[in-house]
Structures are given as C-alpha cells and as structure tokens.
Design a protein that fits this description.
The protein has 4 helices and no strands. With 73 residues, it is mostly helical.
Length: 73
C-alpha cells in the first residue's frame, strides 16, 4: 500500500522527535496547510512535501540556526 506524503512526513518527524507542525512552520509552510491536511480537507502537494522533508533533513543534520531559547524549534 502506498503512503501519502503526509504519512511519510509524520514518520520522518518522529525520527527527529520534533512535532510536525513546528517543522511546517520552520519550513515556511502556513500552519493552516497542516491543519487542513490533518482534518482530511486536503492533501499536501509534492512541492510542500519536499519543503518539509528538506527541513526535517536539516534538523536531522543539525544545520538549523542556533537559537537563544532551546525549547523553541
């Protein structure tokens, strides 16, 4: 069975132990896109999935900007 882009992103986010919503925001994707997808109102596009996947990869590699408040993504 094929997995949706969103399901694949959820698994990737679980690997880095960061909430997927925070990754969406950090990748520059509006939170409304996340919520519409969770509610089943829409599916995310390939371009959006790539943006989020790229951000997950950056987090995994530790290449995100340093920040003062470590509790924030």
């Amino acid at each position: 069975m094929l997995k949706s882009y969103f399901n694949q992103l959820q698994e990737m986010a679980a690997d880095v132990d960061v909430p997927l919503l925070k990754i969406f925001v950090r990748a520059g994707v509006p939170p409304s896109t996340y919520y519409r997808t969770v509610q089943g109102k829409t599916a995310i596009s390939f371009d959006t999935a790539v943006k989020v996947a790229d951000m997950i990869q950056l987090i995994k590699e530790g290449r995100t900007r340093s920040r003062k408040n470590k509790r924030q993504l």
